[in-house]
Amino acid sequence: MKRIPCMEAVVAVLASEGVDTVFGIPGAAILPLYAALRKSPVRHITVRHEEGGTHAADGWARVTGNVGVSIGTSGPAGTNMITGLYTALADSIPIICVTGQAARNKLHQESFQAVDIVEIARPVTKWAVQLKEPAQAPWVFREAFRVARSGRPGPVLIDLPIDVQRGTCLYDEELDEPFPVDVPEPTPASVRAAVGLLAEAARPLILAGGGVVVGDASRELRALAEYLQVPVQVTLMGKGAFPEDHPLFAGMAGIQTQTRWGNAAFLESDLVLAVGARFGDRHTGDLEVYRRGRRFIHVDIEPTQIGRVFEPDLGVVGHARPALAAMADEARRLVRPRETGRWARRVGELRATLPRRDDFDDVPIKPPRVFKEINDFFGRDTTFVTAIGLYQIWSGQFQRTFLPRRYLVCGQAGPLGWEIPAAIGVKCAHPERQVVAVVGDYSFQFMMEEIAVAAQYRIPFVIVMINNEYLGLIRQAELPYDMNYAVDLHYGEGGIDHVKLMEAFGCPARRVEVPGDLKDALAWASAEAERERLPVLVEVMVEREANAAMGPSLDAITEYEPLPEMALAVDWSD
Questions:
Q1: CATH code: domain of residue 318
Q2: Contact 116, 158 (CB under 8 A)
Q3: DSSP label at residue 45
């Protein structure tokens, strides 16, 4: 064994774990790690805010399936990372945040920028740890990667006191490799029970959550659905798990991000096989309405998720990929392959008769028209990144997705500003892909400084801004209170000229005010981004008081007639 600087061992671990890009900001308390990075093949992207670094690592992790890495110095660098750690924990994204720290013998003396970041980060991480000895360095980082990937994936924070970073350790990278990650398989008995319930149901649905995407289980999901001809719905985090142009696609149920026909199909179902879904409140709405008249099978890699929101009729613990594969194998043993039956045809009928209109020619532009143009212009392999607000709800309702890891959204935590740094991470991971960030005007302003990062490193992507000059979701939420308070953002009230802002960063931008100009603007932005190797903005001025369709529970569907009881009783495999 050779004795080397312990931070060189850490960087060797990063490279061997498949990390080719890290995002961060150097500072005095983290410089030994940066000195080691400088000699390595790992690329470093200097962000403008530590939260932006965590979101960039998050975006990189979501599209690669690997562990993203963000680095900062001591004190406020770590506290700035907390939002990103929470976002990754909420959405089951594996990232590692690394912070510098004061020397061990100064931590009790209120040293400059010395804060107990481990205790601060503990509630929003799977593991938060401070390195105590240089000899531990490679092994703590190896374990961090294992923890981030294992079970329900999530974030880890490693705090590095400056005196520990300066130490040495015995390490030989030729003798070291990543720790194995357990992929838990469901018990055969639980698989048999699940398939039995699925095969007996008259109107079953499969609900694909984010765990299907994170678990790379889309192929297994499709095999099971096609063999049994069971319609498939997705949650917002599961968008892309099943192609939305497939005949068995059954839309999306929920109170915000939903399709009308998806809600209708869900209400007519009698059994739901939920895989890698956590039954978030924006999906379920009123649990009494959500559960009434149907049984539930819940498949999840994390045992404590089962029964957390409500008790299912059957719980199955296991990784989404082997669980779905085992169910497909069991189905082949139990039943013959099925043709398209009455239930699948009924779902197709709902899809044809309960669409939302998106072809408006109105001026100001109605938001659904923007998503129609996005759907029509961009190809199936485009990766979309979006965050939180009315534009996320419109995106979930109107935007079509066909492939896994092509629709990225900060789901449960919902931090404003997430989409620009996340898009940077996506493009760093897959420079060959077209990347589109769909943003709101206010969310964009939260982390607009990260545009400077994309400009500096020539990271090209398209930004489509839905600008209603309001805090749109809050304005809509205020309607029952009969007020419109503190939400106005238009130019005369402190608003920003986003076109001039982009130009100040050296990046092209264009404003669109009539729907007929949308297609040309998207074509221009796509070409300009690749030609200039820069982010390019298309700012779309939409109707100021446009509201997103949403309801208090799943039964908030208008102009919908459910199947009569006699029709519900027929054999779905007919």
A1: 3.40.50.1220
A2: no
A3: E
Q: Are residues 404 and 509 in the same domain?
A: yes
Is 229 within a domain?
yes
pLDDT tens per residue across span 512-569 = 999 999 999 999 999 999 999 999 999 999 988 787 777 766 655 545 555 544 333 3
Q: Are residues 158 and 204 in the same domain?
A: no
Cα(273)–Cα(570) distance, integer angstroms: 20
134 and 240 assigned to the same domain: no
pLDDT digits (tens, 9 = 90+) for 392-401: 888 989 999 9
Tell me whether residue 431 is exposed, middle or buried, using C-beta atoms within 10 angstroms of its C-beta: 0 to 12, 13 to 18, 19 or more.
exposed
Q: Judge whether 108 lies within some domain.
A: yes
Q: Are 385 and 438 a contacting pair, CB within 8 Å? A: yes
Question: Which H or E run contains 227?
Answer: helix 218-228
Q: What is the 3-state secondary structure (H, E, C) of 472-518?
A: HHHHHHCHHHCCCCCCECCHHHCCCCHHHHHHHCCCCEEEECCHHHH
Spatial CA neighbour of 90 closest among 409, 462, 482, 491? 409
Rounded to 5°, angle at Cα 289 from 309 and 202:
95
Cβ neighbors of 82 (< 8 A, separation 6 or more) are: 120, 121, 124
Is the pLDDT assigned to residue 496 strictly greater than 50?
A: yes
pTM of the model: 0.93
DSSP element (H, E) containing 233: strand 232-234
The verdict on 128 and 274 lying in the same domain is: no
Reading the block at residue 189, the tokens are 């008995």
CB-based contact 278:209 (threshold 8 Å): yes
pLDDT tens per residue across span 37-80: 999 999 999 999 999 999 999 999 999 999 999 999 999 999 99
Chain centroid to CA 291: how far? Answer: 26
